[in-house]
Write a structure and sequence with these properties.
homodimer, 324 residues, alpha/beta, globular
Chain lengths: 324, 324
């Protein structure tokens, strides 16, 4: 027993050393950084009236525009386009059928014109019709080879260094970090553990239905061309309730699509933290908000003001955008 | 650095002490117990060719009939009946309307006759129409006060002691334990952490839809009288894929409703473990299998034989059934 107590004492001594270090070196000193560290210090201090037990320290993060870039279009849409091009040789009918014709001819105007229905067709043609294991392999191959059109880097290199540090900092303080994204749940899971340290079971996203079938006596899950759940706007609190079953105490987003998630999080009792990443850096990344067709941040910006949520000014608050 | 190494050494020494103890004292020595410990020793031994990294050590458990009893009817159905009785004063129309009339008059025959449709009405009348927070409170109150008709004990006292030990044993070996049950996800979450050590985010189950609404400016999730997902049979692998996103390496069930979950689990590569709890003890619990209207185990018993899965004979393999 004496030995165990000694071990515990040493572990604690080691842990407090850790928290004393600056785990957020890419954040400039300022209100944004200070609001984060103040919140974390307060909920982890057993003597504070805002103390939160470790198991209740749930933090949820949007992905597109919050953990990685989302311009000029959502990266998953580029994946869908690349996929349609790769599959075109088996689909001669796509040469004359929209939105596939637009994709194959790089006709952006026609693609935009195909609207939500066109987008749906594109997603289903590229994301359904294979087993979950096959799809995982397809994503894994794409994510480790495809390059961003502007930066000529892997998409996983276009993650935000300050947010990576924030994830690590929260986990060092016994937070459980989740992704809650409008993006596809099975599009993210193959790489989030390696890139963000977030394991598959802590990734929540939009999904299509799957069906259990037996092939040569082996069970497989076949991805169906049918929407299961859209994890956006009011869908986010619903998905959080379904997947996590606890209300988070901290939420991080960048668009109006995250507003309900932030509202849901910050409406809980006790200390809460809500943060918007505001894209203000047209040189190092992109600058967009109220009128953007992607990642529109309008109502959210107003509500952040009213509620006193933290708004990160990427240009001012972040020393670097991407890792190295 | 020297200190840290010392701490790590001590922690490891302490950990190996733990694993040397018998963490399964309520299991009689025999094939069932041996199959469990052999599997766990093999997947946790870094030198074994069957070694599995801790993050992949996912174990899934059915609840009704696997972790707690399910006779004379599913406990959640007793909850629904109790709830309808409690709400009856506000529903005078129930006096003449089935299946409510049957419930209020304790008319089992009429209740059975109302069939699946009657059951659906009963579940929706008792489980929908309130916020998620209110429902949690209702469940919490019932589960800490209602008593089982035969044993006159709280339902949470009718959990299987050997299975509690198994959960602890697996977690001590760095398994992540999940419930994957046909029961309601929000019916289980309020008490599984305290009773099984399984937190809400590791509970998967059937669900009804929820809707985000604002009451006095505060977001609430209202439970809708509409099925969202039925987590039974082929639904179990689908739910595992959706919620966990990894294939488990061990699965535990007791009925044909768990068969697809066991098939899905044991069809994976590498070392796998599938186990059926067979209800064979009419004295200490109940004895039922191929012809039971609840927890029917027929195809599963045949498949266990063919596949070499472990079948626990409750009467023979378990020293005790319930705690104390």
């Amino acid at each position: 027993m004496k030995n165990i107590l000694f071990v515990i004492t040493l572990v604690f001594a080691f842990a407090s050393n850790l928290s004393a270090q600056d785990l957020l070196p890419s954040w400039n000193d300022g209100n944004a950084k200070k609001s984060i560290t103040s919140f974390v210090e307060k909920v982890t201090d057993p003597k504070s009236k805002s103390y939160v037990k470790p198991e209740e320290r749930i933090a949820v993060f949007d992905n597109d525009g919050t953990l990685w870039s989302e311009q000029p279009i959502y990266f998953q849409l580029i994946f869908a386009i690349d996929r349609v091009k790769a599959l075109a040789k088996d689909h001669p009918e796509w040469k004359t059928e929209q939105p596939f014709k637009a994709v194959l001819e790089n006709d952006k105007e026609a693609l935009v014109k195909s609207g939500k229905e066109g987008l749906f067709k594109l997603i289903m043609a590229s994301h359904a019709g294979m087993t979950t294991v096959e799809f995982e392999e397809i994503v894994r191959k794409w994510i480790t080879t495809a390059k961003h059109p502007k930066f000529k880097k892997l998409y996983t290199e276009l993650v935000y260094q300050p947010m990576l540090e924030l994830l690590t900092y929260l986990r060092a303080n016994e937070f459980k970090t989740y992704i809650v994204s409008g993006g596809g749940i099975e599009f993210m899971r193959p790489w989030t553990e390696q890139v963000y340290g977030i394991p598959p079971e802590q990734v929540v996203g939009s999904s299509i239905k799957t069906k259990l079938e037996f092939v040569d006596g082996n069970p497989v899950l076949i991805r169906q061309a049918q929407l299961d759940f859209l994890d956006d706007k009011e869908g986010k609190p619903i998905a959080i309730n379904k997947h996590i079953g606890r209300r988070p105490i901290a939420a991080f987003g960048n668009s109006d699509g995250d507003l309900q998630m932030l509202q849901w999080t910050c409406a809980g009792d006790g200390a809460r933290f809500c943060l918007y990443v505001h894209h203000t850096d047209s040189e190092r990344e992109w600058a967009y908000d109220r009128k953007s067709h992607i990642g529109k941040l309008d109502k959210g910006l107003d509500e952040a003001q009213v509620e006193g949520w933290t708004v990160v000014d990427m240009k001012k608050d972040w020393k670097v955008i991407y890792p190295n």
